[in-house]
Design a protein that fits this description.
This protein is of the alpha/beta class. The chain is 43% helix and 12% strand. Strands 8-7-6-9-10-11 form a 6-stranded parallel β-sheet, with helices on both faces.
Length: 368
């Protein structure tokens, strides 16, 4: 079986959760004997594959042409939807003038405006972009779905959200493919703690790209008045430098911003931390939450998105727009013993081997 992966063109240069999902799914499919190529060009370089696997229904802009060509050539098309609703953040928490504009618009108009802005910033435009701008965001998503043979959402709630927005998706076969973490790296086994990290023993940790949607500013405001150390790991997203500067201005002496570190060093910080916080406005999962849970941290998260599908009642939940709610959840998580059921659940259900297994199940469904 040969598979071609296709996603947004800046998948490697602007890393996000979808980047990790693409690269890790490829790695573990190949371990299972599936041949996988990643081709991010809007026009195919080769048609020597059985399945075109697309990622991210939120960004149909670069995928329509590929999907159309695949169907014309008799190929099967799979779609990992990665369908998150960011509208609550855009309308309530985004700063500046655009927040007032976004409050007047439906979700698909917001995504269309963001796509236009990304294209202008990149200073490049191709045939696929022009088609998207002419058709509009919602129509492009609907056309893309018309070419899809199977949907591979990351959770049941994500699938329900897709079907609520696009009733025609109910007619497309689907297999829920869980997002995952690397159990070989994040397994809680004894590790050596480098001396420069020992000062963060028993800290609260947040490992995430720094941006408004991840909501680190409200987390800082919540922990400023607590007797705990908060360590923020990550660098600011390209368009959120001002947000990062505001975090630095408001951070108290107990807040430590250590920038980006190598992924291989993250287990050290998870091991030192008592609590991991990801108080986002929306998450399909929150990959760092999975990693931290596997390393024995208590979790503070919100239920915006699909987190309850993964963590159920084993995490401490808060509201992203309430500093008091975040502070109370952090205090409760910090003072509570770790529930071993959380670690067991993650290491059993949410590993990349399971992701590959369910992806192959989806592939076999459409090839048969």
């Amino acid at each position: 079986m040969k598979v071609c992966f296709h996603s947004r063109p800046n998948l490697s240069s602007v890393l996000g959760g979808d980047s990790i999902q693409v690269f890790k799914t490829k790695e573990y499919l190949e371990k299972a004997g599936i041949s996988v190529d990643i081709d991010l060009n809007p026009t195919p370089e080769s048609d020597n594959y059985d399945i075109l696997h697309l990622f991210n229904l939120i960004r149909p802009q670069g995928m329509l042409q590929r999907a159309r060509e695949a169907k014309k050539d008799g190929k099967k098309v799979a779609l990992s939807t990665i369908f998150v609703d960011y509208s609550e953040y855009e309308k309530q928490a985004r700063s500046g003038f655009m927040k007032h504009i976004f409050r007047l618009l439906p979700t698909y108009h917001l995504e269309y405006l963001k796509a236009v802005a990304r294209t202008i910033k990149s200073r490049s435009i191709n045939r696929s972009d022009i088609e998207y701008f002419v058709s509009g965001h919602l129509r492009s998503q609907r056309e893309l779905l018309s070419y899809v043979d199977i949907l591979l959402p990351n959770s049941r709630s994500e699938y329900n959200r897709v079907c609520a927005m696009f009733p025609e998706a109910n007619k497309i076969p689907h297999v829920v493919v869980p997002n995952a973490m690397d159990a070989h790296l994040f397994n809680g086994h004894p590790i050596d703690i480098a001396s420069e990290f020992r000062k963060y023993q028993d800290c609260i940790l947040c490992a995430a790209r720094i941006e408004g949607r991840k909501n680190q500013l409200n987390l800082v405001r919540a922990v400023n008045e607590l007797p705990y150390k908060l360590v923020l790991v990550g660098e600011p997203a390209p368009n959120h430098v001002h947000y990062f500067e505001q975090i630095k201005r408001e951070a108290g002496d107990n807040i430590h911003l250590i920038g980006k570190i190598a992924h291989e060093e993250l287990p050290i910080l998870y091991k030192l931390a008592k609590v991991h916080c990801l108080v986002s406005w929306a998450e399909t999962t929150g990959l760092s939450s999975l990693e931290a849970a596997a390393m024995g941290c208590n979790l503070v998260i919100t239920d915006k998105g699909d987190t309850r599908d993964y963590f159920g009642d084993l995490a401490f939940y808060c509201e992203p727009d309430s500093v008091e709610s975040i502070r109370n959840a952090v205090k409760e998580a910090y003072e509570s013993p770790v529930n071993p059921a959380l670690k067991e659940r993650v290491l059993t259900e949410f590993v990349w081997e399971k992701t590959a297994e369910k992806t192959i199940e989806g592939y076999k469904t459409i090839l048969n």
